[in-house]
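Thread: Modeling a multi-component assembly for a lab meeting

Hi all, long-time lurker, first post. My supervisor asked me to bring a structural picture of a complex we are working on to next week's group meeting, and I have zero experience with this. I have the sequence lines for every component (431 residues in total). Could someone generate the structure of the whole assembly? Inputs are pasted exactly as I received them:
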Amino acid sequence: MRIKRSERLFNLAQQLMPGGVSSPVRAFKSVSGTPIFIKSGNGARVIDEDGNEYVDYVASWGPLILGHANRIVIEAIKRAAENGTSFGACTISEIELAKLIIEAFPSIEKVRFVNSGTEAVMSAIRVARAFTGREKIIKFDGCYHGHYDNLLVKAGSGLATFGISSSLGIPTDAIQKTITLPYNNIEVVEKAFEKFTNQIAVVIIEPVAANMGLVLPELNFLRRLEKICRENGTLLIFDEVITGFRLCYGGAQTLYSIKPDITILGKIIGGGLPVGAYGGRKEIMDYIAPIGNVYQAGTLSGNPIAMNAGIATLKILKKKNYEQLSKVTENLANQVEEVFKDLNIGIAVNRMVSMFTCFFLNKKPKNFEDVMMSNTILYSKLFWGLLKGSVYFPPSQFEVCFVSFAHRDNDVKVTLKAVKEAGMEIKRFLK
Ligand SMILES: *Cc1c(COP(=O)(O)O)cnc(C)c1O
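Re: Modeling a multi-component assembly
Sure thing. I ran the full set together rather than chain by chain. Output:
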């Protein structure tokens, strides 16, 4: 594997942009090394600037469930672009995408389009606070909701206490109303509601946690969360930026039969272009300007190119068989587990439909505390071993591998061969 050109480009990029990147995880810091510069992608494969080809499990961090450069999506983008890139005015494409989303999500009656998941979360919290007349937020440790000040919080020392900010530059005021709790633990949620009666505006959660590696929810945890919110007049926000249209044609809420008050979407609904959206019951959404007094706007929001990429993507997904996707993932995850079991190396693979994470742990993690016990040195070895074997996993233990509808038998075969070789290298390292 040659990486000369990527190395040269990264040196240049570092002089021009902080860390050489537009988003931190791309810098390969947690696996220490030079990031590869991607030149192109097609189906399940990407090619870097040195000409190496990889089976891709990053998928632009989730959006590309149809694989790279899907013909029909690209055609839709071209057609839209030829009619003009942006108008800052009403277009039919917004109606069409809104219709598709509302049909797929029974909890969404109205939807507002924005430009990123972060923006959608930030706006949804604003609406929720206006609607409830309350200010406090409950979030869960290890769940990521973008880089909104109020949510860049990690757990403090005690349970059910206020957290500490996980970034510099955030005013103390911005996080004083955020309570951070462990995932999958309903008792601490109940305690928080007792302590802060009638003060909690919103509980925000990734219904399937995919930003600490993949951590699955206990069904009862989600059910009781819904119930507690209802009983206390608190709004439940499902952040389905990753899970929307990734687990089925709908969201995690479809699979678990739960009705959140507000849903956050992004990633897949933009078909690879920058989009975010938030939606929910009419009475809540009508708090937003121009009907209501919650201000939220965007010059490029509802951008016709992004809308058309999203429409094309959802129309294709509507006809896709997620069960088959699930089988591909299951088969791959099981075999990876086998490889490491045979080598006597502790690994726990969490998987769901089209996502999986290989944790170097002896048991399946259920929350952030468990996840943090992972052996990240071994993950880094796995990552580089796989890259050498033409497989591109996320450059961090705490990210999810995404399987797309473009992954074929041969891609799985290449992956398993690389996993076996990387596994043996890890074994030699451990001796
Ligand atoms: C990616 C992500 C976001 C943030 O979306 P951006 O478009 O990167 O701002 C929010 N929530 C979840 C669950 C995400 O995975």
